[in-house]
Amino acid sequence: MMLRLGLATTLALAAAPLSAQDMSGHEGHGAPAEKPSTEQPAKDDHSGHGEMKKAPAPFKLPDMTGAPQMDHSAHAMGDIPSGPPPAEAFEGPQHAADEIFGGEAMAEARKTNHATHGDMLTGTIMAERLEVRISDGHEAFLWGVQGWYGGDIDKFVIKSEGEGEFGGGVEDAEIQALWGHAIGPFFDLQAGARIDLEPESRSHLVLGVQGLAPYMWHVDGALFLSDRGDLTARVEGEYDQKITQALILQPRLELELSAQDIPEREIGAGLTKIETGLRLRYEIAREFAPYVGVGYEAKLGETADIARLAGEDTDGVAAVFGIRAWF
Amino acid sequence: MSLPLPAWARGESLTHAKQGFGEVSGEKIALSVGEHHFGVGGRKGHAIAVNGTVPGPLLRLKEGQKVRIDVTNNLEEDTSVHWHGLLLPFQFDGVPGVSFPGIKPGETFTYEFPIRQNGTYWWHSHSGLQEQAGHYGPIIIESAEPDPRYDRDYVVLLSEFTPRHPHEIARLLKVGEHYFNNQMQTATEGEMSVKERMMWGGMRMNPRDISDVTGSTYTFLINGHGPMDGLEYLFEPGERVRLRVINGSAMTFFNVRIPGVPMTVIAADGKDVAPVEVDEFQIGTAETYDVIVAPSEGSHALVAEAMDRSGMGVASLTSHAGHRATPPPLREPVTLTMADMGMGSMNGAHGGAMEQDAHAGHGSMAGMDHGGMDHGAMGHGDMDHSMRDTSKLPPDVKVGPGLDMVSPMPMDRMDYPGLGLDNVGHRVLRYTDLKAKRMNPHRMPTRQMEIHLTGNMERYMWSFDGKKFSAVTDDPIRFAYDERVRVKLVNDTMMAHPIHLHGHFFELVNGAGMMNQPLKHTVIVQPGSTATFDVIANEPGDWAFHCHLLYHMHAGMMQTVTVRPFPAPGEGA
Prior knowledge:
The complex is a heterodimer.
Chain A: H1 2-12, E1 18-19, H2 98-101, H3 103-116, E2 122-135, E3 138-150, E4 154-165, E5 169-182, E6 187-198, E7 202-213, E8 217-226, E9 231-239, E10 241-242, E11 247-258, E12 270-282, E13 288-299, H4 301-309, E14 315-326
Antiparallel strand pairs in A: 2-3, 2-14, 3-4, 4-5, 5-6, 6-7, 7-8, 8-9, 9-11, 10-11, 11-12, 12-13, 13-14
Chain B: E1 15-16, E2 18-19, E3 23-25, E4 28-40, E5 43-50, E6 53-54, E7 58-62, E8 66-73, E9 82-84, E10 108-114, E11 119-124, E12 136-142, E13 152-161, H1 166-175, H2 194-203, E14 219-222, E15 231-234, E16 241-247, E17 254-257, E18 263-268, E19 271-278, E20 280-283, E21 288-293, E22 299-306, E23 312-318, H3 360-363, H4 372-375, H5 383-386, E24 411-412, E25 447-456, E26 461-464, E27 477-480, E28 483-491, E29 497-501, E30 506-508, E31 519-520, E32 522-525, E33 529-537, E34 541-547, H6 550-555, E35 558-564
Parallel strand pairs in B: 1-4, 2-6, 3-7, 4-8, 7-12, 13-16, 15-23, 24-33, 25-28, 27-35
Antiparallel strand pairs in B: 4-5, 8-10, 9-11, 11-12, 13-14, 16-21, 17-20, 17-22, 18-19, 18-21, 22-23, 25-26, 28-33, 29-32, 29-34, 30-31, 30-33, 34-35
């Protein structure tokens, strides 16, 4: 949009014109701006590469002699056979350039090629939520960070999330180290370990899936088996609705479940917690977007009963302010 | 300049590459590849320049001559030069790992081959992502016979410049969701109904995936000059001007037009075609078209609009030095349609050529519930399944995470003018307009094969037959020497791919008749569609075959085409 306006206005303000060079020579304009260099750069020993060495005895790949002989004259467009290539297509060296430049140099070049033609390794770190949560008198903070490094199929994945109150320290903190493996076009299987630092040290085995569900929901679900044998699960999903190219509304939903009571964590079996949120972010750059929003969380089922008995609130609404940033 | 030491070793800081190019010619040519800075239109960054310019120098050659080209690498990494469209011994084709080992830092490699053709071509690095950084330039081969068709001759080399390092672009394509796309559909923009949006969302596809990298980071260049630079092509009224349009970009298809000035296409990919007059044409990455124009007195805007309409290259074709033409505004962004999903025509029942009106209204899918959809038995509920029915694939296509879609009903779209150009109200070139000027030999193919173009937009994986190049290094596509093969390319993605075969010209099967099929080195396969060519494999050796979108090739959309026996009978040994 800016460019459109820019073109119209700036082009009117002509600077010194640049002339394209007429290449025809019909007008005498074709004089080369740069004379062909007579001074050759220092040469190395590549000069003899033009000559071809004698081909070694052709190694035979699958015997194709059974392939049907082809009649070159009588085929109409529709009935061209689609079998394997003729036998001679398998003759000669596996790599023709090996014959000219040597097998070693070419093997090295092919190896280098892998990284630049499919096997690139890369990664990213994203803080999806770095936020302050304000609810009737409480000021809390929360982080949710995730990163990965690897290739298309296998990745090393790291995740961390936690929360706490300003002045009250960190209440929950965990870090996960996972191996991610693509199991379909849109989903990765993830397996690894989770270490809880708060409320107390505990470790879990993790098995989960993460990816893009139909209707563009980013989902992440995992089972956690703790070192005390407790099985819990967590499912979260979020969706980016563009209002404009830079203004994005993100609904988010998270559910936690437990297969058994975990008294020391005040958790009852069944659905334990729901967390929903609606965040409106503005991408100043794709990588940096401040947001405002609202979050609601509630303890559910037996977990809520336990909280009620202890005289605690079972749910609460918070205004959230934060930053989504990635590298 | 020809010292083999790189600049850093000589204790020098990087120099600024000159915009635009000089010319080199004769039987001995020296090129040196070096690191530079480059700036255009306020964007500045790292560049790889050849002989100190971006683009690199024009190679002017003559049909029938011999040429020896010494390429000196002053970079700190390997480099290469591929002569795009030239017929030559395969070991001089310049693809590291396929035709030669590459040129090491500080080394000089000598290319030496006879010039067997004439026309408009180009050269570029085939190493990593260097082409994006400025390592490319034009080639003109004058015909052995005088060519009386024109009075003036200009190169129009289209490309992009980005201040970002190409490796960073490759990373952002892998990790950032549509990082460069600022034309996504939003709640407040776009004509699609909620139902249609749901359908695209259900497939996890984005109907505005036109270009992966856009004007958000690219400045579009003509001969190295940005739209604000005021590049001029001078002419005298009454002259016939030959414009040699080369798409030397890394990732951009351009819509080329000169409003008010019809263009007569006389060559495609360097090969003469029967003249055809058009008002606009879309040029895929790595294609070339030669056109003749005879503009009236005045200044005319030569516009190369990026296919996704995120920017344009601009120059003035003028009879008055210093007068700039005013370019037209950018047109509305393009939205993909049913045909681009490989669902054939929206009217469904048509088995033949695509109906032009399928794209009317820029992607309105009003016909969604009618005809084709019902025939295809694709309700919304099972859309996801229908868009990836892997039973439709031949057995040699690998089904895995790298394949996010299978075109349910791919159709040949040789008569399609290109994304966004089916409804512009003037004459746009289509592949079906191209007819070879010289007759091809009358030979039937003796074999046919199918190659699927496969990908995963979300993961940014691209491949042929579901297998990345890194996985098939030792399993090439095999042709017997002098075999004539019919190759059908099936695009199982929603992007247009310009597919390039090295060392050969193939004939587009475009309905022009067996002997008039146009010769090309690069063919656009439209989204969700097929394109078919006939090729005579008469150049022994190993040749690269790949999508010419640089980051698609980098992601693995490449293969080796092996022509055997090697050496050919009666040669070498």
